[in-house]
């Protein structure tokens, strides 16, 4: 008889679930419309368009977590290599009643952590050496509880797929443009298509980017809330947030720029400049918003 699936003790978040379903529906609809427009404009290339879009989507779904982990320098470690990190993950998993993910360390002075995985069975949680060196045990547990809530709520997989659809629109545009340019001189309808496709692709990317950013900010607040309620120590998570954000100012710009492309996965965003335009379209809410929410939860937990 198959083992019955257990439900984690992370507090369910109906708001997050609704936003994930809505975002996936809208981005999926956007992507279908985009492919439909490509098929209409480049009728002769429909087999290539469908084959490439399908193959890239499947590849992204199955390998996105490995690609992201490798890009951020994650190296899986044993309990003997990282006993404190494994111990903290064990305690959170026992508290949350969820299977233990693979545990990894990234050799980086940028104090941060992330989680990837399509499901709890394929999940990986990673902390940087900079984070392990700076945080107290209770602060580290708060950060790990935050990251594991992403796995429990499955928003890691949703964000990965949603982010990829915009990128896929750009890739397909380049491919169809290369194929269409060779025929544009002989066929006036192809020439019009070649002119329209970049504009359509730009609109698809912009809309998908905004949708994923809105979801990303909410999911970070949801993860803070779930971690604080699970551990019962919102002050420890607030302390970790304050410490990590404050330490970013002392990290070399080169290291921050290397981490910036993966901001949607990190516990706290890495910015190469306090005035960076990326803050306007940040994947995370502001530190003030996160601390204010944790302060409210702390007050709630203190009530009789």
**Largest beta-sheet details:** 4 strands, mixed
Q: What's the arrangement of strands in the largest beta sheet?
A: 1-2-4-3
Q: Roughly how much helix do the residues carry, as a percent range?
A: 55-70%
Shape: elongated
Question: Termini, distance in Å?
Answer: 44 Å
Number of helical elements: 10
Estimate the mean pLDDT confidence. 82
Instruction: Spell the H/E element sequence.
Output: HHEHEEEHHHHHHH
Quick structural summary:
The chain is mainly alpha-helical and about 300 residues long.
Q: How would you describe the overall organization of this protein?
A:
The protein is mainly alpha-helical. The chain has a domain of 111 residues. The chain is 67% helix and 6% strand. It has ten helices and four strands; from the N terminus they run ααβαβββααααααα. Helix 5 packs across helix 8. The longest helix is centred in the C-terminal third of the chain and has 44 residues. The relative contact order is 0.14. The model has no long low-confidence stretch (mean pLDDT 82).
List key phrases describing it:
mainly alpha; 4 strands; 6% strand; elongated
Provide the fold topology.
Blueprint: H1 14-41, H2 46-71, E1 74-76, H3 83-96, E2 102-106, E3 113-116, E4 124-128, H4 129-134, H5 137-153, H6 155-184, H7 188-231, H8 234-248, H9 253-259, H10 287-302
Parallel strand pairs: 2-4
Antiparallel strand pairs: 1-2, 3-4
Enzyme class: hydrolase
GO molecular function, one term: metalloendopeptidase activity
Transmembrane segments: 21-39, 45-63, 156-177, 189-211
């Amino acid at each position: 008889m198959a083992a019955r699936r257990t439900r984690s003790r992370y507090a369910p978040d109906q708001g997050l679930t609704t936003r994930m379903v809505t975002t996936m529906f809208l981005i999926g609809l956007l992507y279908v419309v985009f492919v439909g427009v490509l098929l209409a404009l480049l009728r002769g290339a429909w087999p290539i368009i469908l084959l490439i879009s399908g193959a890239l989507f499947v590849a992204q779904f199955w390998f996105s977590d490995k690609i992201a982990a490798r890009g951020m320098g994650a190296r899986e470690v044993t309990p003997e290599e990282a006993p404190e990190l494994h111990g903290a993950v064990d305690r959170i998993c026992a508290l949350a009643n969820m299977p233990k993910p693979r545990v990894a360390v990234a050799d980086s002075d940028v104090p941060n952590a992330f989680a990837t995985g399509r499901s709890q069975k394929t999940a990986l949680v990673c902390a940087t050496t900079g984070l392990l060196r700076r945080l107290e045990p209770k602060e580290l547990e708060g950060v790990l509880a935050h990251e594991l809530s992403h796995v429990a709520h499955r928003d890691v997989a949703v964000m990965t797929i949603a982010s990829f659809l915009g990128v896929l629109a750009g890739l397909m545009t380049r491919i169809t443009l290369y194929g269409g340019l060779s025929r544009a001189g002989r066929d006036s309808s192809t020439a019009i298509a070649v002119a329209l496709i970049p504009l359509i692709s730009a609109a698809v990317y912009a809309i998908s980017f905004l949708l994923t950013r809105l979801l990303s900010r909410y999911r970070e607040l949801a993860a803070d809330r779930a971690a604080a309620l699970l551990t019962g120590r919102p002050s420890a998570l607030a302390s970790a947030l304050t410490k990590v954000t404050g330490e970013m100012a002392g990290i070399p710009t080169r290291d921050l720029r290397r981490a910036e492309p993966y901001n949607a996965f990190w516990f706290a965003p890495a910015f190469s400049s306090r005035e960076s335009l990326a803050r306007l379209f940040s994947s995370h809410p502001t530190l003030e918003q996160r601390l204010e929410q944790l302060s409210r939860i702390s007050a709630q937990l203190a009530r009789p």
